[in-house]
Amino acid sequence: MNSKERVFAVLDGQIPDRIPTAFWMHFPPECYYGQEAVEAHLEYFRRSKTDICKVMTEHTYPCQGNIQCASDWGQVKRYHRSAPFIALQADIVKAVVQQCGEFATAATIHGVVASASHTLLGIPRYDSIGRYAQLYHLRTAPQMVFDAYQRIAETLCVMVQEFVSAGADGIYYAALGGESDGFTDEEHARYIAPLDKMVINAAYEAGAKYVVLHMCKPRVNLRRFLDYPCDVVNWGIRESGVSLQEGKTLFPGKVVLGGLDNCVGPLTDGDEGALESAVARVIDEAGPKQLILGSDCTLPGTIPYERIAQVADLCGRHGLRSTTNANNACR
């Protein structure tokens, strides 16, 4: 199997020749845009042996000005497909996809809450300032902020259409705002979830073959996302305290992506023996079906690509044994 066949076998509920892997990282700022971004992605995919080629999106939602109070959210605009941050990113997706024929590709979409943070702060970051400012403004003037969220979501629908049109097999949707110390369950259900779902559904309507739902940040309440449309779920195990097996129970029928910590542990600072044990543990815990082995979130840019490639090799070694055992158990 090549990488695309391997990933789609898992999506179809089959057991592949080995457990596929999916890891990603931010490249240096000089590789954020244009041909430099294309080349950085292609080198990473080739050397890391990752099966899902996730195209990073550094063209973030534009900052409209200095948002100091709830009424300033009226500055947030709705954008057409010709907006540079959409068109230039679609060009990167198209160029990467054209050279990744044997790989499953996924274009990154920063969700409604993350994009709102970008336009609030003017930087591609989601931190405590952005989180609590949004929360305060929403509670101060809910309709004003929700209207801005709506315009952001409508723009993101255009983005997913452009990325799928550019050839991306799937969409990786970063759904933030699920932290239990931020929006309440009721606020999330009323103001965030409907817009997240609108964007995800737009991806399917545009022809996306799969959607990866990423839920991260500390204290995330995964139950807020149980009815989100998606094929693959990915979350921070260490940050949320929810194991892979628990996640499979929470999201029945979904493929789980993850298993390794992206900040500390065998992948980032362990020896090969520790990494091999960690990979074996993940596969044994989750089983050989509906699993893509990856990390909680984005890897540090300092990790050697060859280290990431070791995970694919280890999946090949351990996965073959697990597959044989699973097949024998079915007889």
Descriptive report:
- There is one protein chain.
- The protein is α/β, with parallel strands linked by helices and 331 residues long.
- 49% of the residues lie in helices and 12% in strands.
- The chain has twelve helices and eight strands.
- The chain has an eight-stranded parallel sheet.
- α6 packs parallel to α7.
- The longest helix is centred in the last third of the chain and has 25 residues, at 305-329.
- The radius of gyration is 19 Å and the shape is globular.
- The two termini are 24 Å apart.
List keywords for this structure.
331 residues; alpha/beta; 8-stranded parallel beta sheet; 8 strands; 49% helix; globular
Write the layout of secondary structure elements.
Layout: H1 3-11, E1 21-22, H2 34-48, E2 52-55, H3 84-98, E3 104-110, H4 112-121, H5 128-140, H6 142-165, E4 170-174, H7 185-206, E5 210-215, E6 232-235, H8 237-240, H9 244-250, E7 255-260, H10 266-269, H11 272-286, E8 291-295, H12 305-329
Parallel strand pairs: 1-8, 2-3, 3-4, 4-5, 5-6, 6-7, 7-8
